[in-house]
Design goal:
Order of helices and strands: EHEHEHEHHHEHEEHHEHEHEH
Distance between the termini: 63 Å
CATH topology of the largest domain: Rossmann fold
Radius of gyration: 26 Å
Strand order of the largest sheet: 6-7-5-8-9-10
CATH architecture of the largest domain: 3-Layer(aba) Sandwich
Shape: globular
Number of strands: 10
CATH superfamily of the largest domain: P-loop containing nucleotide triphosphate hydrolases
Largest sheet: 6 strands, mixed
């Protein structure tokens, strides 16, 4: 009898490509590629090689130079000969339709850019009808200007409308052009339908928000994978999905939280990321409305990340784009248990770097910079969580009294242990 061996499905292998430019030095490029590798891992791919090139800017035709593209192709062919097939090549920036077409023609493997990879993760993570609709709309917006590359196998049989010896004439237009127009019309109609559906969802969400009563709204914001959902679980004593992967949360989750005698609403929102596609921000308008309508923003930061200061800038810029930069906010530095630093030798007179700053010094620096409007916690180890509750109580109570001066909604002291 013949035996059947069931083997595990192997993850697709990926090659990463990034550029070193005047505005993006080698260190920053490495950090971007580290993040791109994490994105690829979240999507289910395994990274086997990285390629970088020093240039003034992306090549308009092939993103990287011709020589670098040939080097990537030689590597892919060598791996194939060794029976280690490369499944895809992922570029760290968004590629134009022309760049995609030319790179695919040269490398003959699946080509993704940072935007399409993020969209793929969003599609994988979307659970509710709202999230799925938003992701689908963002995918169509990304796909529309790149339709031509999907039909390169169909030749245009005619062009122009000349008569006689002219090559093109009426009725002889190629199937590629016809199919492109059909697809474009189908996508535009679908996008119109999705926008209408999102408008309906937006109205429902607005009604839901207006029915939440006279309570202060607090929103957790921050870079992706900084521990917002874990913090949400601790503060609200609920079970919101949390995972050590990028974009674990797509749908905004709202929970009622009570600290002592003060009830308020706490929302967990989608994380931000560097080079976040504009289409995603536009599509997730209804989700980000929770941030716009919040009374207080808790900006969660992963202090253990080597480049957390740039992540803070990315979040602050995104909040400014959303029109939320003037809102009351405080910074919650999370993951202090994972913070690492290197102590310099006493006889080492060279200037110290970021890696030589102790956690105590960092805390003093940021508390001075933020007028002590920040707190350092570990959601995983539950360090300083009670202190966070006290600070949060004071801030929410102050906002509550200002916004609802005649509201007697505050009740007698609430005992957590008896609940």
């Amino acid at each position: 009898m013949k035996e059947f061996v069931i083997s595990e499905a192997q993850a697709e292998t990926a090659v990463l490509v990034g550029l070193i430019t005047q505005n993006q030095d080698e260190r920053k490029t490495k950090e971007y590629l580290d993040e791109l590798e994490f994105l690829a891992h979240t999507a289910g791919a395994v990274t086997v090689k990285r390629f970088t090139q020093k240039v003034n800017g992306p090549h308009s035709v092939t993103y990287v130079g011709k020589g670098k593209l040939e080097e990537i192709r030689a590597y892919i062919e060598a791996e194939e000969e060794a029976e280690r097939e490369i499944g895809m090549v992922i570029f760290d920036d968004e590629l134009s339709a022309k760049q995609l077409r030319n790179i695919e023609k040269e490398l003959k493997v699946k080509i993704l850019d940072r935007t399409s990879l993020i969209l793929d993760i969003f599609a994988m993570r979307a659970q509710t009808a709202n999230a799925k609709t938003q992701v689908e709309l963002a995918q169509y917006r990304y796909m529309l200007p790149r339709l031509q590359r999907l039909w390169t196998h169909l030749e245009r049989q005619g062009g122009g409308s000349g008569s006689g010896g002219g090559k093109g004439s009426v009725g002889l237009r190629g199937p590629g052009e016809t199919q492109l127009e059909m697809d474009r019309r189908i996508i535009l109609n679908r996008m119109s339908l999705l926008k209408q559906r999102l408008a309906d969802i937006d109205r429902q969400k607005t009604t839901q928000r207006s029915n939440r009563g006279r309570m202060i709204r607090v929103a957790l914001v921050g870079y992706t994978n900084v521990g917002k959902s874990t913090l949400m679980n601790l503060l609200s004593k609920s079970e919101v999905f949390a995972e050590n992967k990028l974009f674990a949360t797509l749908d905004t989750t709202v929970r009622k939280v009570i600290i002592d005698n003060l009830p308020f609403l706490l929302s967990d929102t989608v994380g931000f990321i560097r080079k976040l596609p504009t289409d995603l921000v536009d599509s997730f308008k209804s989700t980000l409305d929770e941030v716009r309508e919040a009374d207080l923003l808790l900006h969660v930061v992963d202090i253990a990340h080597p480049d957390f200061e740039e992540q803070i800038q990315v979040v602050e810029k995104t909040l400014a784009d959303l029109g939320c930069s003037g809102k009351p906010s405080m910074i919650v530095f999370n993951k202090i248990d994972a913070y690492r630093w290197v102590e310099k030798d006493e006889d080492d007179l060279t200037p110290g770097g970021k890696e030589n700053v102790s956690l105590a010094d960092l805390m003093k620096t940021w508390m001075a910079r933020c007028d002590e409007n920040c707190i350092f916690v570990s959601a995983r180890e539950k360090t300083n969580i009670e202190e966070l509750r006290k600070v949060l109580y004071a801030k929410v109570r102050e906002l509550h009294v200002q916004k609802y001066p005649y509201n007697d909604f505050l009740f007698d002291k609430y005992d957590d242990e008896e609940a």
